Amino acid sequence: MPDASGRNVVSGRAFGRSVHAGPSRPLGRVAEEIRGGRPLPEGVLRGIRVADFSRVLAGPYATMLLADFGADIIKVESPAGDDTRQWKPPVDASGEATYFGSVNRNKRSVALDLTTEAGLAEARRLAATADVVIENFRPGVMARFGLDYEDVRAENPGVVYCSITGFGDGAGATLPGYDLLVQAVGGLMSITGEPTGPAAKAGVALVDVITGQNAVAGILLALRERDRTGAGQRVDVNLMHGLLSALTNQAASTLATGRPPGRMGNQHPSIAPYAVFRAADRELVIAVGNDRQFRTLARLIGREALGDDPRFATNPARVAHRDELTAELEAALAARSAGEWSGILADGGVPAGLVHNVAEAIDYAGTLGLDAVVDLDGRRSIAAPISLSATPAAYRTAPPALDEHAGADWFPRKDSE
Questions:
Q1: Which of 124, 154, 160, 302 places its Cα 20 to 30 Å from the Cα of 247?
Q2: Residue 242: which residues within 8 A CB-CB, separation 6 or more?
Q3: Each residue of 58-92: pLDDT tens digit?
Q4: C-beta of residue 75 within 8 angstroms of C-beta of residue 106
């Protein structure tokens, strides 16, 4: 059901304990009945069944995106639950960890003890009947339970089996895949921070998020191939390779020159001015990408002569005289507040903006009409970052309680089932 913004939101928790009835019962039809006859939300991935053995961030982020677009996600947890259930404070309106809530909406939770015969049998049943299996254990763990790709494929040849690891399944198989560790050994921290300061990590587990996005892409590619051939396949993504790919121009520069880049704070190695600058009251970013924009910037701040100064007239010259340019710009910017400059520059066609905190950033997205926040039962999270015109994301259920859907089976693939 579209909300006031046109986004598909079904309020309330539709799939509660009242619909538990064992693995053979078509719970999707019961869920429809307790919704008052409303059909399950449509989505481009409706009918795709995902047995989700992942936990923490990369895997759950991937499966949440799949769920937002209609995939049926059964989240298989240990009896203790996903580790992030205990990562609190902070907590949301229901008292649940916001970390867990950020990546687990639109899913159902079952708790299975894989060390017991019954728990392992149910896990194997889910894997054998899923379109997609996703896991992020260390290599070898799923094999010990008879749940690795070869075991599952023997029963389910069409399965798309996605494994997320820290460093692949070769020489790095035993290394723990923690985001901070990968940021360090993967080179990101060496280029993050001030030139004379210590190495710094990104302010969020960025490598996990990138890897989750890579997992989504890999799964969709494999599903598209299955549409063509009927055969499933294994999808492998790892944090280390994902980070190296995301280093893009920095990695390309290193490969081309043999010289690794260093930390430059908020400066760009190849463009100027493209950094954070101090105005009268606070910081703002100015991101000039070409000489025309720089001449406009110089005019708008009352320093038009800078556009013809040989030190600054071209981008290579500005890069070479970066410190002098910064001094000139900040002397002019000190005359007004960052908010005033941001408006003046943006209106004049120069990319500029305030350095927002996270709350300000969310509010700013709202002023732009980006509709970036979804509210489910009072639990707010960031909406899917992908917008489809014909088959948009749908937000059906808040993140589940542990084992909230014990005994759950797959929803019907079609209304007629």
A1: 160
A2: 207, 210, 211, 214
A3: 999 999 999 999 999 999 999 999 999 999 999 99
A4: no
DSSP per-residue codes, 137-179: SPTTHHHHTT-SHHHHHHH-TT-EEEEEESS-SSTTTTS---H
Contact (CB, 8 A) for 23 and 122: yes
Residues with catalytic roles: 208
Q: How far apart are CA 318 and CA 208, in angstroms?
A: 35
Instruction: Give residue 338's region: left, alpha or beta (phi > 0; psi -120 to 50).
Output: alpha
Count CB-CB contacts under 10 A for residue 156.
19
Q: Are strands 233-238 and 160-165 parallel, antiparallel or unpaired?
A: parallel
* Residue 10 pLDDT exceeds 90: no
Q: Which of 45, 52, 65, 245 is nearest to 142 (CA)?
A: 52
Assigned token pair, 369: 């009409």
Question: From CA 382, how far away is CA 403, in angstroms rounded?
Answer: 24
The span from the CA of 190 to the CA of 295, in Å, is: 33
The contacts of residue 251 (CB under 8 Å, 6+ apart) are 187, 244, 245
DSSP string covering 40-62: PPP-TTTT-EEEE---SSHHHHH
Q: How many residues does the chain have?
A: 417
Residue 29 confidence (pLDDT) above 60: no
What six digits make up the tokens of 212?
A: 């989750």
Please give the span between the terminal C-alpha atoms of the chain, in angstroms, as a whole number.
22
pLDDT score of 306 more than 60: yes
The CA-based dihedral angle spanning residues 294, 300, 301, 305, taken in that order and rounded to the nearest 10 degrees: 60
Number of H helices and number of E strands within the chain? 15, 13
pLDDT at 13: 33
Residue type, 416: S
Query: In Å, how far are 21, 22, 303 from 26, measured between CA atoms?
Result: 9, 9, 71
Please state the pTM of the whole predicted model.
0.88
Q: At what angle do helices 338-347 and 291-300 cross, to 10 degrees?
A: 130
